[in-house]
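It would be a great kindness if you could assist me with a short task in structural biology. Thank you for your consideration; the sequence and its tokens are set out here.
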Amino acid sequence: MRTFVRHLALVVMVALPSMAAVMIATPAVSSAQCANGDWWDSKANVCRPPGGPLPLQCDAGQWWDPTGNVCRPLGVGPQPLACEPGQWWDPTANVCRPLGVGPQPLACDNGWWWDPTANVCRPPVVPPAG
């Protein structure tokens, strides 16, 4: 039994320094570890560059879902809720929120759209005529 304990202690002593080196060299990714102004996308579990995703050119009969950054057929995915007066639809969480709670939709100009993930107005995919 003593031999077993000595061998186990020796194995542990050899293994611990290498395990500690690996933990220090490769830490887990978290929201605090995005570099160069990137932001943490918790839904996709990745760091994204500033400014958020640009809208995709979806085919007719599809819409761009900014939370998944994919084109979806009409009627598929989160559908706007019929929120009561004094509330707004938060598409990222698919809930109605009271005005002033959560990221607030911006009043975007002529054809520009509000990107809720970055809370900025973005230009239209196809520039407006005229």
